[in-house]
Amino acid sequence: MKAQTSWYQAVWRWHFYAGIIFAPFLIILAFSGSMYLFKPQIEGHLYKDLLTVREVGTSLIAPTELMEKVTSTYPGLKISSVTFPDLPKSTVKMSVEHEGIASTLYADPYTGHILGIQDNSKTFSAYFKKMHSQLLMNGTWPNRLVELSACWAFILTVTGLYLWWPRKKSAIWGTFLPRFKNRGSRTFWRDMHAVPAFWLSLFILILIATGLPWSGVLGPQIDRIANATNTNYPPYGTVYMEKPDSVTVAKDVADNIPWAAENIPVPSSISGSYIQLDMNEIVGIADKQSIQKPYTISIPQDARGVYTISTDHVRPGSDATLHVDQYSGAILTDVRFADYGMMAKAITYGIALHEGRLFGIFNQLLGLITCIGLILISISSYFMWRKRKTNGRLGAPNKPRDKRTTIGVLIIMLIFGILMPLVGLSLIVVLILDLIVIRNVRPLKHWFSV
């Protein structure tokens, strides 16, 4: 019994410190994520005049003619990709560089009328995406801080389950159901923290896990593991020609690329005295290959470049990435969802779930409930802490007397650190501060209950 109490104390101590540090970041991530979940509905309302045509026509303008109308209206405008919609009322979107700024141009596919140009960095989704991935700051380190927070949120959830898991029948109150008596008491806030966390723990873990493939440190490791185990895109994805030596990958030259195909090497068109195929012919190839709209065609940027036909589809099963020789129309790369390995398929479904598009509005609502729950869990932890905190101390749980328990829990944390490199780095920093600074400065030692 004493050993169990000691383990509880050690786990609680790690849970407490991680919560104190990362709860504010988790609130930001949950809030921004909940807003981004409803991007289709919110942007559909905010930018209705750009996203929808005024009147659905009887026939579409040929893609090449549409592009010519755009460039004649904006001389010198550079079009890098064109996205063709799946709905008759939707506009065609073109990724362009307008006055040196990466923008999106919206054109009526029936009349060729340009409905407007929008700075990509000033949209609703761009704002909340930057908040979610970089805390609205620039540079690499904010992204790493977000990843670190997400990784520690995973650990917080696992340790929280250990702490609050019911160990006797009477624990139904405070684990499965909250106790509403004595509102404002420490017990009340404890239940407001533990009960939502218990019910939502599985969804929180899934939400975190499905976001990590995008992360800056762990994401590339996941991709390498998928490639090493042949569970990402298939090695025969470039069967139409020898595997290219180029270090350029699909995400570097094209838009709307599925996660599993982002790092597919880009082949080169066979240069010579050929005439480049126009957009009409490439659209014809896309339709002939049964690529489901909406799909994006990225335009070659030089004489050796290729057309890229891609769709990171709302329905993951319709994902496709094709590289097409710009002169002959030969298909150099053709990777579909059916070609993905087991890991790539799982991650693709996970990303769709994370973004709230796997099963429509119910997916969005499930994500929203999880985000609101995470905010409530974080806020309630603050009140729990204030109820516990005493003058002159941080209010951390006492350190276990059994050193073997402390070492045992530390080993478990180091295993987490090996699996999640940024966690490992943060553990090293914490241990150095603990051994060199906190233990040797008496006020800090007292404050941290060391």
Automatic annotation (TrEMBL):
Keywords assigned: Membrane, Transmembrane, Transmembrane helix
Database matches in InterPro entries: PepSY, PepSY-ass_TM
Membrane spanning residue stretches: 16-38, 145-165, 197-217, 365-385, 405-438
Protein name: Putative iron-regulated membrane protein
A Pfam cross-reference name: PepSY
PepSY domain location: 289-332
